[in-house]
Every structure is written in C-alpha cells, then in structure tokens.
Amino acid sequence: MRNVWTQEELLVLKTHYQKKGAKYVAQTIGRSLFAVRMKASDLKIKFISPTLWTKEENAFIRKYYSSKGAKYIAKKLGKSAVAVTARAGRIGIRGTIFIRWKEWEIRYLKKNYLKKTARSIGRTLHKSMDAIHSKAAKLSIKQPSAAPWTEEETKKLIKLFPDSSIPVKQIEEILKRPQSGIWKKARKLGLLRKGFWVWTKEMDAFVLQNHSQYSLAEVARKLDVNEKLVYYHAKRLGITPHVSQRKWSKAENEFLLDNYQNKSPYEIADLLNRTVISIQNHLRVLLSRTSLQS
Question: Would 242 be classed as within a structural domain?
Fold first, then answer.
C-alpha cells in the first residue's frame, strides 16, 4: 500500500481535482477514490461543479412553462421533466398544466400498493415514487408497519448482505423478514451487495482514531460509506461517535434540486461534503415541499 504521495501525484491532484473531480485524479495517478478524497480533504481542495442551468435555459422555462408544460421544455432542453419542474419552482414559476390521475390508474394503485413496491408501480404508471406515495396517502392507503429491527438482526444483515455468495432468499429465511424489507434496510445502512466489498481493519482504525475529532457524518464522508454503517461499527468497537447536524443552506437546497436528476447521490454528497443518506433524506423533504407548493 502506498502511503507517501509523490510531488507528481500532488501536482495532478492540485491541478485537476477542482475541475475534473476525484475519479479523474484516481484514474490518472492509480490511487483509490477514497485515498484521493482523503488527500483532497487534508489539503482543503474542493471540487467545483459547473453551472448546469444557463441563463438561456432559464429564460426558455420562463417563456414556455405555463403554456407548454415541463415535458415540452424537457424535450427541447434535453433534460428530465422532473428536473424542469424543480427548476421552475426554484426560479418562482408555477405551471397551469396538471396531470390528473385516470380512473384505471387509481384502481391499479389501490389493488397493488400493498403488494408491490412504489418503484414497480411507478414504472407501470410512468409516475415517480413520490407521486405514488403521495396519491396513496390522499387515498388513505397505508402499508402495515413492520416490526422495528433489533440490534441482533441488524448485525446479521451487516454480516450477510455484502456477501453476494449468500442469496437474499437465504437471508430472508434467516431473518424471517420479506426481501423488500431486507433491501430497504440494507440501503439505509449503505450496504453494497458486492463480494469484494468489506469493512476493513484500516476503516476500524480510522474510526477509532478520529471519532472524537470528527462528527459521525464527517467520518462517514471520509470513509465514503453511509453514516449509519459507521455508527453500528463504532458501537461494535465500543465507542459512541459524535453526531452533529449541519443546517442546509438555501444555496445547498437549490444545488440539490438543480442536480439530483443529473448527478448520483454519491457525486452530490461529494460536492456538498455530506453523507449519501443525508442527501437522499433531504431530497425527499424538498420534493415533498415542491409538490405541496405546486
């Protein structure tokens, strides 16, 4: 393992990290994304994202949003309708075109909401997951709440889920929980179902050395994992990580709404110096507010 950075590597990092990001630097010098991000953090170098919405695009939205709608603009600008709607809300525009639910769509939702996932229903109806959940709530369709996960169940999931040689069906039988619940919990914990991904001794050492210096979110960010996963491993090591919540600024809210359709949660987390779970949770809140204001 290489620990000492050469002058050539540092030059590549300082020259290209801000404009091209960690992935480009990692591929150029042959180091991991984790190592590049850690070094950039130590040197206080941040990636600067280019503006995704131009003045011309904003003007186009202002001109046609109320009369033509989001789909028309999305097609012309090469963006998604959801991104256009979110951007219109950010620049103070409200459309007059509303897509009403058809009777057959409502019947399908009532029949399948408790049987299928919102993602599956959304694909059939060509609607977002937020739209599915929102309509179900208006129709008073509620999914039965599952029993809270115990600490023992969580430990078993953390141990079993990342190993792709163990079928999820087998995990389902071990934990006595449905596969949908297992996948949902795994996503919340930031678990990746890849055989090569494991929590290493080096990550344990980093948590032990830095848990008092950095917040839980900062430790998770530096390790490039979900903060809940850090929390459970910290507990396993017999320490209590420092939890702090940083308020979201107006600029961060605008950036998240402008970019969530064009960038992955991991990229946005990297740019805003927040955890992936924080990005995902706050995005749901913002989209819910946008939906209520529309």
Answer: no
**Angstrom distances, CA of residue 267 to CA of 95, 186, 196, 224, 270:** 30, 20, 22, 11, 5
Reported as a single tens digit per residue, the pLDDT across 83-138 is 787 788 777 776 545 567 889 999 999 988 877 877 788 888 877 777 788 788 88
Could you tell me the residue range of the domain that residue 29 belongs to? Answer: 7-42
- Long-range contacts of the stretch 280-284 (C-beta < 8 A, 24+): 282/248, 282/253, 282/256, 283/256, 284/130
> The whole model's pTM is what?
0.27
The count of domains in the chain is 2
State the DSSP string of the chain: ---SPPHHHHHHHHHHHHHHHHHHHHHHHT--HHHHHHHHHHTT----PPPSS-HHHHHHHHHHHHHH-HHHHHHHHTS-HHHHHHHHHHTT---S---PPPHHHHHHHHHHTTTS-HHHHHHHHT--HHHHHHHHHHTT--PPPPPPPPHHHHHHHHHHTT-TTS-HHHHHHHHT--HHHHHHHHHHHT----TT----HHHHHHHHHHTTTSBHHHHHHHHTS-HHHHHHHHHHTT--PBP--PPPPHHHHHHHHHHTTTS-HHHHHHHHT--HHHHHHHHHHHHHHHHHH-
Identify whether 174 is part of a domain: no
pLDDT in tens, 185-223: 887 787 776 544 556 777 888 888 887 777 777 787 777
Give 53-70 pLDDT, tens digit per residue: 788 888 898 888 877 878
Q: For residue 196, what pLDDT is reported?
A: 40
Domain presence at residue 257: no
